[in-house]
Amino acid sequence: MSTVSGNKVEMKKKFRIRKSPSDIGIDILIILFFTAFTLMCIFPFYYLFINTISNNDLVVSGKVNFYPREITFTNYANIFKVSTLLYSIFITFSRTVLGTFLMVITTAWAAYLITKKKMWKRSFWYRFLVITMYFNAGLVPWFINMKMLDLTGSFLAYIIPGMVAPYNIILVKTYIESIPDSLEESAIIDGASTPRVFFKIIIPLALPILATITIFGAVGNWNSFQDSLLLMSSTPKLMTLQHVLYTYLNQNSAAMNAAMNSGGSSQLATVQMNSTANQYTIAMVSIIPILLVYPFMQRFFVKGIMLGAVKG
């Protein structure tokens, strides 16, 4: 046993690539570059966070730069005092989970059907799908259409319009085309139906690209704001988190304008301080959930987006 392990060590030493000083220098430069780039990407979020947990007076005066000072969680406590916040989080979470799930299923199914040559008018439907990526009727016709469909003030307005995503369908279609046809043909010979082939073979093999569009869908649903603003203004209980935070931010801005008009310098300073802190805190509350989810999906995301873009 020791002889075998010794041989392995000798083989590793024998085939180890010896790097020249210039190669080592280039490796060090690459590591330093990407380390600096990573810090540049992380620092804005870190800076935002330390400003939300620091004393507001120090934040407004610009004294919080690299580490929190006089740590306090008052800003988060004030945000969560907003009466509709918790319910809006529930609405946004429900929309994100349900909307993303249905989008992934319908996208995968549509993409799978488009890859089948026996599909009726396959080329027409695919071209029609691509055209919708470049042309749309505009905001006003969209709103009129949603109103005619009786989706204003309805939770379904968050779900139905996003179930078909042309760009995601193209990605999944390209990925599915890279799966060997022999797998599907052997299942069909064994008597498997088209839905069974889809759920038992295509879905498991397409998990990387499905994870990719899941990230796209989840981020889009979580950050979506315009549909809530236009369709749910008369239904406060269905407002999303972004909409509620936007309303709260507007209230703070209105209070600051009122303080400016009143001419009270001390009152203005207090309102400005609270407004700045609220802006930072609102930003953190909005992005923290996505920041927590993304690292778990990253490896699927990278693999899926690369393989899904192999063909045009």
Notes on the structure:
The chain has 312 residues and is mainly alpha-helical. The chain has two domains: 2-74, no CATH class; 83-307, MetI-like fold. It has 15 helices and no strands. It has helices at residues 2-15, 21-52, 56-60, 74-79, 85-114, 122-131, 139-148, 156-159, 166-177, 181-189, 194-205, 207-223, 226-231, 241-262, 265-307. Helix 2 (21-52) crosses helix 15 (265-307), helix 5 (85-114) runs antiparallel to helix 12 (207-223) and helix 14 packs antiparallel against helix 15 (265-307). The two termini are 52 Å apart. Mean pLDDT is 76; it is low at 308-312.
Please supply descriptive tags for the structure shown above.
single chain; 312 residues; MetI-like fold; 2 domains; 74% helix; flat
Please report the total strand number as a whole number.
0
Distance between the termini: 52 Å
- Domains counted in the coordinates: how many? 2
Could you tell me the CATH topology label of the largest domain: MetI-like fold
Helix content: over 70%
Oligomer: single chain
Highest CATH level, the class of the largest domain:
Mainly Alpha
Count the helices. How many? 15
Largest sheet: none
Radius of gyration: 27 Å
| Rough outline | flat
